[in-house]
Amino acid sequence: MPRTHQAAWDRLAHVAVLDLPRLNGDSSTVVDPTVELDVDEVFGRRAPLVVEIGSGSGDALVTGATEHPDWDFLALEVWRPGIGHTLAKMSSATGGEALPNVRFVEVDAEVALRTLLAAGSVHEVWTFFPDPWPKQRHHKRRIVDAGFAGTVLRLLEPGGTWRLATDWAEYARSMREVLDAHDGLRLVSTDRAPLRPMTRFERRGIEEGRPITDLAYVRD
Predict the structure, then answer these.
(1) Does the annotation place 173 within a ligand binding site?
(2) Alpha-carbon distance 66 to 75, whole Å?
(3) Which residues bind substrate (predicted)?
(4) What whole-number distance in Å separates Cα of residue 65 and Cα of residue 59?
(5) Within a 10 A sphere around the Cβ of 135, how many other Cβ atoms?
């Protein structure tokens, strides 16, 4: 990590990053599947919960948590430098502190979300600009598939929303095909997600001529 990101990690990780039992030792990215997170205990209150899958450098997370202090945000990010970057942004936004309504889990979200959270406990799930794996032979690695849609559907409260965004038109079509065919999920918007800020990745996609697609599906 760059020095400023490492410094933010060293100062804030013990507060903001959850230390959960791992299936194969401390360096594993797989949480023990017998562990179910007590979200109310983690945040010290009961509030609408947003789960961000792949928080990257934290633009949406910090924006959302700052604008919605009445919501709690759980970010699942497997890339530690991304968490460090987000902690540095958070520190800049708060004058050096962690946001009290944000926690991270350094983990493979696709696996962890099968067991980590109680069914019907999540207000919104965010999947902004997941890895598109553009080559045909790598499409099986994409996180948005029928199996993962079932995982998200289990997590969402009735009326809860899954927000997605991508700058790959073919992946957007694939998302639509998968989610439109999934019982229990209903497309309600293709407008830009209200708390999603412009990021350098999105800007680069636009500069390279790739259209941005936003999708919002609600659990019926």
Answers:
(1) no
(2) 14
(3) 135, 167, 199-202
(4) 10
(5) 8
Which DSSP string do the residues of 156-210 spell out, in sequence order? EEEEEEEEEEES-HHHHHHHHHHHHTSTTEEEEE-SPPTT----HHHHHHHHTTP
Domain at 164, CATH number: 3.40.50.150
pTM for this model (two decimals): 0.95
In this structure, of 6-10, 27-31, 88-92, 186-190, the range with the lowest mean pLDDT score is 27-31
CA 134, CA 213: separation in Å to the nearest integer?
A: 16
Q: What phi, psi does 205 have (nearest 5°)?
A: -60, -45
The domain tally of the chain equals 1
Structural domain boundaries enclosing 47: 3-219
The pLDDT score that the predictor gives to residue 26 is: 67
Known catalytic residue at 131: yes
* Distance of alpha carbon 182 from alpha carbon 185, whole angstroms: 6
pLDDT tens profile 146-187: 999 999 999 999 999 999 999 999 999 999 999 999 999 999
Q: Is 200 annotated as a binding residue?
A: yes
199 known member of a binding site: yes
| Residue of 19, 40, 131, 220 with catalytic role | 131
